[in-house]
Amino acid sequence: MSNIFRISLISAAVLMSCSALSALPEGYPADYQKVVDAANKEGKVVVYSTTDTKSVEGLIKGFEKHYPNVKVEYNDMNSTELYNRFISEQASGGTSGDVVWSSSMDTALQLATQYAQEYTSPEKSKLPEWAVWKDKAYGTTYEPVTFIYNKNLIPAGEVPDSHATLAKLIASQADKFKGKVTTYDIEKSGLGFMLSVLDSKADANYFTTLADMAKGGLSVQSSTGTMLERVSSGENLVGFNILGSYAEDRAKTDSSLGIIYPKDYTLVLSRVSFISSQAEHSNAAKLWFDYVLSEEGQTIMADAADIPSIRNDIKGDNDVGGITKKLGDALKPIPVDESLLEYLQPKKRLDYIKQWRAAAAK
Question: Which of 112, 182, 281, 307 could form a disulfide with 239 if both were Cys (CB 3.0 to 4.6 A apart)?
């Protein structure tokens, strides 16, 4: 072999190596390339999520553009279905999700305590401290919880701006709001149960407030989409404990839908994600996990799906900084920590549901 040919081969190898390394996200360690190479061999990542597939189409496309040899097998389901399916599969030892990503922060963290692998994401430093639990479970979004109402059927002068004024409005016009108020069914929706518990912690008079909101009877649902549709159509007049990200996205094309960020307190949810300790595609899971948390991934969610970013450095105002500027001290971020697990103890959960039923007349 001639020296010139040998040098050409070496130069080509160096260029290929540099090209591969340059493709790594900025600030990532050089040995992250090993993760990429192993993920390419795995070929796919299996994601179990409560986030609608439509909302993450852009995220999936962006990921697969960066890592064309890794396909995303995305399974969306409600929070209770996700929890039960994942638990069942872990118990049987069958195939399961590599990554769990759930809006039901409490049940997701409960799963993480048993099934999450420890992983320090290169994106960790860009997240609030309260959003990371033991380098196992990570908050990925920053989503205020809102009220919604039908603009055509509730006069502007009656629009409530707090939990107390919403309760007062409904109680004072019980006939008008009979069967016209919607919220989560806390027995069927893990997210709904968690938000109700957190309401009870934020409002010392919560069950009195709930009773007033239920004066005309509550129409309970297990999905945000159903509640948005019913309020938009006029079948219901108002809804509470609605994820603002979904409401904002719908309001872009639905002039009848009004959104209220309550001034007394606004809970802020962060969808919790973790990598399974039994992940079949562990390296591909790390790529997906980091991409969701990355500036690019967060920007795609904030812009394309109106899901606010957990970061504070993306363009625009749909992130922690922008939302804080808009809503200020009313914001109450829900930390990713053990406090979420308190009401998942069977007896405590059952007692809480009984108390909720009594107040809600269900």
Answer: 182
